[in-house]
Design brief:
binds adenosine-5'-tetraphosphate, 2 domains, Tyrosyl-Transfer RNA Synthetase, disordered N terminus, Rossmann fold, 7% strand, 13 helices, two-stranded parallel sheet
Length: 350
């Protein structure tokens, strides 16, 4: 075997990668782009919370991603802290998981560049999220186009086995897997190839006013979105005013009846019952909406309570994020060094 020409070390071996303990490593993130909503909760947070005891979890406020569209500089820092408080409000335990801010760990940006050099223009051009977000914008930032490379960097830096995300992130996850496998084939086994974990029900919660579009922090009207911190009256009002249709029949048919199907799917995710069973219990929209509002109010009540606790002390939140960044950087720096060496970059001697 030929040794590395400069370091004298052996080239990175081609073998199945296991770079951490036997526990499954989990990574996921959320952008600080606005108030978190029911889609974020059912698509991502609930899975994060469910797996936090048996997995080694890294959860990140991905603030660098939020720069890919217009943002308000004066609000970003506070929104970042608030998003982290919402992670805990949703049920994450600070002693069990590593919680940090993406821009605090500089390896993310550096790894993103290495991966941009391993992904093609054609692949990035096919990303539907890019097409949707770029549509109708005057000036599209280059960062919006290369966003998936940064997301791949986020995931691969932590030797991640599982990435719990909503359905809208499936395509980015596929690209991450492709890039990891391509890199491993070209430069030697370097990255763990991650799996997406998408929930069965409510993987794509739709906007309550425009049910053919996904519920989103930055798009759609406030009435179309249930925020994580909405109180009982707001939740009830938004569900009551949710768009359905005029035929009055409760049945699950996302193509023909997107509004009522969205409500049924949310109910199924909240109660754990199969969607067909939920649908069979109702004859009228009114009673479905009333029960759904009640179930959501009950589900979100503890979230609001925990939010009060964690948002009341931003100093403590900032300390927690500092500790998280140290722990994350210790893992990320090793993976980055491995990738740089594999690509043949000259290492420093000191
Ligand atoms: N509507 C949704 N249904 C299910 N899951 C969803 N997620 C987002 N919207 C829904 C999941 O939430 C996580 C965090 O998403 P993000 O902050 O990275 O951004 P996003 O996917 O682009 O979500 P938003 O809310 O629509 O943000 P903006 O408006 O800023 O683009 C991800 O796991 C996502 O799948």
């Amino acid at each position: 075997m030929i040794s590395h020409p400069v370091s004298g070390r052996l080239p990175v071996p081609r073998r199945a990668a296991t770079y951490h303990s036997a526990m499954t490593r989990v990574f996921s993130g959320v952008q600080p782009t606005g108030a978190l909503h029911l889609g974020n909760y059912l698509g991502a947070f609930r899975q994060w919370v469910a797996g936090q005891r048996e997995s080694d979890c890294y959860f990140c406020v991905v603030d660098l991603h939020s720069l890919t569209v217009e943002h308000e500089p004066g609000e970003l820092a506070a929104l970042t802290l608030d998003t982290a408080a919402c992670f805990l409000a949703a049920g994450l335990e600070p002693d069990l998981v590593t919680l940090f801010v993406q821009s605090h760990v500089h390896e993310h940006a550096e790894m993103a560049w290495l991966l941009e050099c391993n992904v093609s223009f054609g692949e990035l051009s096919r990303m539907t999220q890019f097409k949707e977000k770029a549509a109708g914008r005057g000036a599209v930032k280059a960062g919006l186009f290369t966003y998936p490379a940064l997301m791949a960097a986020d995931i691969l830096l932590y030797d991640t086995d599982r990435v719990p995300v909503g359905d809208d992130q499936r395509q980015h996850l596929e690209l991450t897997r492709d890039v990891a496998m391509r890199f491993n084939n070209r430069y030697g086994e370097t990255f763990v190839v991650p799996e997406a974990a998408v929930p069965e029900a409510a993987a794509r919660v739709m906007d309550l006013q425009a049910p053919t579009q996904k519920m989103s922090k930055s798009e759609g009207s406030p009435l179309g979105r249930i925020d994580l911190l909405d109180g009982p009256e707001e939740v009830t009002q938004k569900i009551r005013r949710a768009v359905t249709d005029t035929d009055g029949e409760v049945s699950y048919d996302p193509d023909r009846k997107p509004g009522v199907s969205n409500l049924l799917e949310i109910m199924s995710a909240v109660t754990g019952e199969p969607v067909a069973e939920v649908a069979s219990r109702y004859q009228q929209y009114g009673s479905l909406k009333a029960d759904l509002a009640e179930a959501l109010v009950e589900m979100l009540q503890p979230v609001r309570k925990r939010y009060e606790l964690y948002s009341s002390d931003p100093g403590e939140m900032a300390n927690l994020l500092e500790q998280g960044a140290d722990k994350a950087a210790a893992v990320a720096s090793k993976t980055l060094a491995r990738a740089k060496e594999a690509m043949g970059l000259l290492g420093r001697t000191a």
